Amino acid sequence: MNKPKIVILGAGYGGLTTVAKLQKKLGVNDAHITLVNKHDYHYESTWLHEAAAGTLHHDRSRVQISSLINSAKVNFVQDTVTAIKPDEKKVELEDGDALEYDYLVVALGFEAATFGIPGLLDHALTIGSINKARQIREHIDYQFATYNNEAEPKDERLNIVVGGGGFTGIEFVGELANRIPELCKEYDIDRSKVRLIVVEGMNSIMPGFDPELIEYAMNSLEARGVEFKLGAMLKEVREDGITIEQNGEKEDIATMTTVWAAGVRANHLVEESTLEDNRGKVEVTPELRAPSHEDVFVVGDCALVWNKEIDRPYPPTAQIAMQEAEVCAHNLVALVKGGEMEKFEFINRGTVCSLGEKDAMGSIFGGKQIYGWTASFMKKVIDNRALFKIGGVGLVLKKGKFNIF
Ligand SMILES: Cc1cc2nc3c(=O)[nH]c(=O)nc-3n(C[C@H](O)[C@H](O)[C@H](O)COP(=O)(O)OP(=O)(O)OC[C@H]3O[C@@H](n4cnc5c(N)ncnc54)[C@H](O)[C@@H]3O)c2cc1C
Prior knowledge:
Layout: E1 5-9, H1 13-25, E2 32-37, E3 41-43, H2 48-53, E4 62-64, E5 74-78, E6 81-85, E7 90-93, E8 98-100, E9 103-106, E10 110-112, H3 120-123, E11 124-126, H4 130-147, E12 159-163, H5 167-186, E13 195-200, H6 211-223, E14 226-230, E15 232-238, E16 241-246, E17 249-254, E18 257-260, E19 264-266, H7 268-272, E20 282-283, E21 289-290, E22 293-298, E23 303-304, E24 306-307, E25 312-313, H8 318-337, E26 350-354, E27 360-364, E28 368-371, H9 372-399
Parallel strand pairs: 1-2, 1-9, 2-5, 9-22, 11-18, 12-13, 12-18, 13-14, 20-23
Antiparallel strand pairs: 3-4, 6-7, 7-8, 10-19, 15-16, 16-17, 21-22, 24-25, 26-27, 27-28
Helix pairs in contact: 1-8, 1-9
The structure holds flavin-adenine dinucleotide.
Flavin-adenine dinucleotide (FAD) binds at residues 10-15, 36-39, 42, 45-46, 48-49, 80-81, 107-110, 127, 167-168, 171, 267, 269, 300-301, 316-319, 321.
Organism: Gracilibacillus pellucidus
EC number: 1.6.5.-
Protein name: NAD(P)/FAD-dependent oxidoreductase
C-alpha cells in the first residue's frame, strides 16, 4: 500500500507542534512525513525581542530541530521553500528540488509589513528572525561603542525609535529600557543623553488591552525613561532620522536606529501561490484547510481565522498557532487512518505582555488582570509551556525560564 506523503513547511510554533503530534499518533508505516525549514534550528519567535535588546543570548531561544523530531518517522529537509504549487501538489525548494505531497501543511509564519513607508525597507530594522534580532542588538551596541570615539559625538546615535506600540514593540521596549543603563555604564555614557521613543499611529499603545493594563504599562516604561509619541504616523525613515506626523504637524527626529515593530503579514509565498487568499493569508475552513485546495492545511500566521464575536480576524499569535496545529495534526491522522475530523475553536487562555525581565501585565483565565511579579511569573510559565509542547520536559529543563525572583 502506498503511504501518503505529508509535507510540513516551517518549523516554528505551528509546524513543530504539528510534527510533535503526528510523530506521536502515526506509526512508521502510516505515512511519509517530511518537515522543511530554512535553518537546522527552531527559534522561539516570542523571545526574539529579548535577543534583539541583548537581554537574552540568542542561543537560548534556538533549538536544533534534530533534537525535537523522531528521525525514524520524520524526514527533515533543511532548505528554503521558494514556491508553493498546490495545483501540481508540489513545493519548490531553493536548491532546485521539488517535493510532492498528498497533504501539505503551510506553517511559514510572518514577515514585516512595511505599508510602503518611504525608506522603511532600507533604513529600519525588524525583529523577524534570530539573525535580524542579532543585527538589532549589534547595531545598538555599535552606536553606543562609537559615540565616545568620534571627534564630535553624534547624539542621534543614542536616539532609538521603535515604530509600533503593539505587543512586539512594547515587549522590545521593556527589555531595552532595562538594557540601556547597562550599555551606558559599559560605554561611559550619561543615561540622560539616551532617548528611547515609541511612535504609535493610534492614540493608545496596546490596542485591545484594558485601559488599566495600558496605563500600568505606560507608567512602568515611562519610569524607565521611555517617551511615547501617540497618534503619530511614521512618514519617512532615513539613515540618520525619521519624520513623523502628529496632530497635522510634521516633526523630524534624529536617530540612527529605527526598529519597525508595527506590522506583520503572512509569508509572501502564500500570496504568490494559487491558494485563495484574503489579505495575503488563507482564510481556512473550520478544519483548517484551504478552501481552494482540500489537501492543503494552513496554520499559524499564514492562516486567517475569523473571530465571530467581534467580527474581526484573530490576531496572529503563538497561542493560536499551536492550538491550530493540534487540530491540524488530528485531522491529518483522521485522513490517514480514518476517523472524524475536528473543527477548530480558539480557546483564549489570556495574554501576558512582558515589560522587561521582572515586569509584565495581562489578563488570564477569562479576563482576570495581572500585573508586576505575578504577570512576569505567568509569562515565564507560558514560555515554558510552549517549550513543553514542542520538546517535552527535556526541552523545558534545557531552555526553560526559571529566573522568577
Ligand atoms: C518579538 C515577538 C514577540 C511575540 N510575543 C508573542 C507572545 O507573547 N505571545 C504570542 O502568542 N505570540 C507572540 N508573538 C507572535 C508569534 O511569535 C507568532 O504569531 C508565531 O511565531 C507564529 O507561529 P508560526 O508557526 O506561524 O510561525 P513561526 O513561529 O514564525 O515559524 C515559521 C518558520 O518558518 C520558517 N520559514 C519561513 N520562511 C521559510 C521558507 N521560505 N522556507 C523554509 N522555512 C521558512 C522560519 O524560519 C520559521 O522557523 C511574538 C512575535 C514576536 C516577533
